[in-house]
């Protein structure tokens, strides 16, 4: 070997039988100190200046003669915890992670909660396929019987009553209620009692307070006893603001009985469900329109009850490039189903015409162009009622403040149809064709329907109470501005004012303070209160897109007394829909096949589902 040609900085492989490499002195130093370079980064000119920077704190050290001792000292003195973490092996990390331990009691709690929320049968825990699923997920699981599920549900209800009671105790404002009665397939009657209140964060809450079995006739006294049982249980009998019910006569006797027993409840704060009022009004209108709908009903019935015709309708939908939708049949007790029937038929018009023309048995029920035109007008007449019903059936935003404005909107709507018919009659010249006479009859029919509807609307409009006015005033989108409306002024001057004069409400704040309703509502005793009231009215009326609850949340410090009133009044619901919705849920719990549940068990399941799924869910975390 020629030693003169050897570069001492090159690796030299020596065959010593182990196939190992010999490295240069510098690389050997680096190799021995390789762990250090996990924490330091060499300078770009390291070979010349031997400098390295700490990855953690950025300090720079010089490695004299390539030594890394000072780097190691820095790591141990300044970053010992980081070093330990870097040195941890995967085994060490796994050991450091707490070991998960299966808890059968926690699993059973979740299982019971799942059964309640999804309304499963208690016997689901005894089904072999369900057990197989649980054991596949956790072989150590221990399931329970259906009877034990029932017992745990009853215990959960009883153990959480005090929590619910405490949550109601912390409510700042008053509480309003909706009630309704339902009879199950097993002939058990239940009172659904729902509470509505605004919390300190200005959110509107609705909670099922109780689902109580009623024994005997649905008399006012029995309803009152069930109602008092529900509110006494939660100690909220002195926080009643308003009660919303349907228009059944037994609810009027219930209100009378409640006012006699409970001094905190004012009889005037009973509200008729607006959705129910609309139903009564439209039903009166539909009596006049029934003949116009009979041919359509027959056609749709013949299609609905024939699978073959449904298939043909589906084919015709595709042929005419419209969505394949089924026909809708109306139910006599639900006017909105009549609107849905007409609306769907108008959408399927071309497909229905094609089907009727193609079948001999349906040719007598072909809808003519004039009849389709009539149906379109009926739809437009009913559409306003549908929109308002949907709007007022909401439970997460204030609705009572819109009651009087929407009453007026519907009255105006009916009067538009009445005046339209009168104008056309005035324009008659006596030389009408048969078609024109038919059209006059059509307009006359819709006019009669509108007149029937208007009479019923005015009947219930005149039954609205002072609270309906107060809550409108407390809506920052409306205030007193709305009451320039002639219909309101008429009702105000003839019904609400104690004055015998015929003067009307105007924009003068001084006059507003003098009228009886304002005095009654705001009970001014101190100049400070009047100043607050005046400042509220001088502030701009909000845009309709503004959330009134959020407005009061922001402005409550400026108007503290009015804010307290708003918290009480804006929570009053205009419909009893929230209570009625409970019955839709209960129909899944109590079926023809599952009809032997005891009243107390049904009560526990219904209340727990509402509490766990709704605004009291925090109590069950």
From TrEMBL:
Keywords associated with the record: DNA-binding, Metal-binding, Nucleus, Transcription, Transcription regulation, Zinc, Zinc-finger
GO MF annotations in UniProt: DNA binding; protein dimerization activity; zinc ion binding
UniProt subcellular location: Nucleus
Major site of localization recorded for this protein: nucleus
GO CC terms in record: nucleus
InterPro entries membership: hAT-like_transposase_RNase-H, HATC_C_dom, RNaseH-like_sf, Znf_BED, ZnF_BED_domain_contain, Znf_C2H2_sf
Domain BED-type: residue ranges: 31-86
Positions of the UniProt region annotated as Disordered: 419-443
One GO term (biological process): post-embryonic development
UniProt xrefs under Pfam families: Dimer_Tnp_hAT (PF05699), hAT-like_RNase-H (PF14372), zf-BED (PF02892)
PANTHER family from the UniProt entry: ZINC FINGER BED DOMAIN-CONTAINING PROTEIN 39, ZINC FINGER BED DOMAIN-CONTAINING PROTEIN 4
Assembly and binders: Homodimer.
Protein name per the record: Zinc finger BED domain-containing protein RICESLEEPER 2-like
Species whose genome carries this gene: Rhizophagus clarus
